[in-house]
Amino acid sequence: MNVSCRQGVFARRGSFARRLPGPPLGAAPPRRAAPCGRPRGRRRRRWTAALAAALGGALGAAGARLFETGDARGADALAEGKRPPAEVAPGTPAGPADDAAIRAQQAAVYREALAPLAAAELSFVSRTCGLTAEERARRAAALGAWLDGFAFEHAAAAVRQADAGDATTLQQAFESSLSAELQQGLSAEQVAAYRRERQARDAYRLETAIDCYLAKLDQHVVLSAEQYAQVRDELRAHWEDVSAPPLHAFVHLNNVLPETPAARVAKHLHPEQRRLLRGIQQVRFQETFGQRLQIGGELPLIDDVALPPTRLGGDGAAPEAAAAVNAAPAPQENGP
Amino acid sequence: MTRNVRPFRSRGLLALHAAAALLCGAVRCGGQEFTLTQEQFNAWLSRGTDSLHGFTSAQLGVELQMARATARLADAQAAKLQLAGDCDVARFTGQVDELQQRFVGKSFPQQELGEVYREIQPLAQQLQQGLFGDASLYAKVLRQTLDPAQRQLYDEARRGRRARSYAAAVRLLIAAIDQSAPLTERQREALLELVLRRTRPPRSAGTYDSFYACTQFATLDVQELAAVLDAAQLKVATKAQEQGLGWQAWLASMGVTPEP
Predict the structure, then answer these.
(1) What pTM value is reported for the model?
(2) How sure is the predictor about A61, in pLDDT bands with cuts at 50, 70 and 90?
(3) Where are the domains of chain A?
(4) Which residue among B49, B176, B180 places its CB closest to the CB of A279?
(5) Interface probe, candidates A179, A220, A295, A303, chain B, greatest B C-beta count within 10 A
(6) Exposure of A306 by Cβ count < 10 A (0-12 exposed, 13-18 middle, 19+ buried)?
């Protein structure tokens, strides 16, 4: 029996779906109840209307321009509030300016959620490429501006995809754009070192997912050493086909297995093991984009890199604080 | 400060199963009363995927297969083990029958249905985790039946399985640390090697492997970690150790302890 583990059913607190304000722009109001049982659509519409009234004038025009450009220049205009606030009468139907205001607000929340991922990756680059404090500070400033633009461009899509329980596309877009952004300004040797380390990290995660899957499978069907090796080779060779479960799928597993095509695994099992495998509930886990892997409790994010505060109007660390963190001596990797 | 966070989501699962049962119409409704059918009972017990007899037979089959393959059992030894396993199955089936008599065909108010489900769950979990663990008759007979050489072979195979399972849990823990405090490849491998060298797998692998790995990580000396990690990474790792310490007592109370 296969079950899809979508956001909402097993979602952790703090996911984008719950944190982003308002419905996806241009989308029909959601009719289904939220996973927790609350009617979501009405509450969101009310929230959206209030937000639009409050922010529509000040942010609307600049936000609309930002959406058109979709980059950090728009964010600059938004932050500086170059257009005067427009009058919004209570009860006025939502217009383009309101949409832009909501978009700006969504972008600020989205940016805040993405910032830890970006900061962690910059910290990774700093280690793998041996960035100096000055280089790190410069990269942090550029990354902050890039993140503003990315968040503004993709916030609405993030709401839609989170509502649909599928953040994979956006995650891929974010990761590839982030990687490209971080590589700008690096020397050829640094780029090579970063790519090599990224590959090693991806390989580590892949091996971890396979090992965790095999460990769970073994608990249910008692694999021999030969079967263990055979299934591992099979999964390694066809990992793209088996829609790899994310690592968080293995933290809380009780009596279920992450879904993999049964044929890939079953052909290495004997009949009784196959019978047991059929009896185990298989769950399709989806990536929880934006959340770091946790085993029980959240770990603090490394604090040797700080991005500058957003210019989209969200909360952020004071610029001086970010500058002080980035100016600290570069981390010296210790050896075993 | 440490925080004891428990990984259970049983309430959610309970609600999910109860809702699924009601939606599927597997539970017949008469006014405010619900009658638990045999089909629904079976679904709650064995996830509705196989007959109880078929599932337990397959479980015993794979255990015997492993004993045969690793300890090279004689026919007489295999027969003894088969008998012991059948006794475990019979004992379990008896417990299931008792619950069936109490619940199947009986009507319950809606608010008591969750209670019924909760009573069935320990048996369902036992079934999913296997009937032939260390406390089973099968395991006791196995220990008495094997000669020293066979027992060594069998224990080695089990240790190997536990070690693989534990290594996977440690890899997962390091992946979690890596996402909060990025590591280079060299650091990742060094940390993995350090944890596996300085800690021990659990007596038996199971649901709590990743939490167990955290408790073992907590036993590492900070100086050892500092030899692998830089200061900023060490802060995150130390926090992971604090969390692991917070789970030690809880895991011990669940019987999850290091192997001797």
Answers:
(1) 0.73
(2) very low
(3) 196-285
(4) B49
(5) A295
(6) buried
